[in-house]
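# step 3/5: fold
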Amino acid sequence: MMNLKQHIGLRVKSARREKGLTQEELADRIGKAVATLSNIERGEALTGLETLALIAQATDKPMVFFFEGIEDTRLVSRKRLEAEDELRLQAKRLTDQHLLLAQEILAAMERAQS
């Protein structure tokens, strides 16, 4: 389903968004053009390790973050991984009470699916 470029690109986008950076801000921090970063995030270009290390530093992520779950990329769609990343970001912004409520809602949806 997803290839290596797409997986790493999605993780770069996730790290950037989690840090609260725009593409322009991250591109500036790593010394790359916005178009280059956009191509990386969309999986159009595979970044080198040096650039990935700069991205890791700018987003406060360990290098391994960009490779986590890579073995699953052939099994799930990009759309699903993007949705899972968005859920993680949303969960971080919720209050404890709302997070617990969201967890209960998801558990109920999972039970209904069975």
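# step 4/5: annotate
The chain has a mean pLDDT of 91.
# step 5/5: archive (pending)
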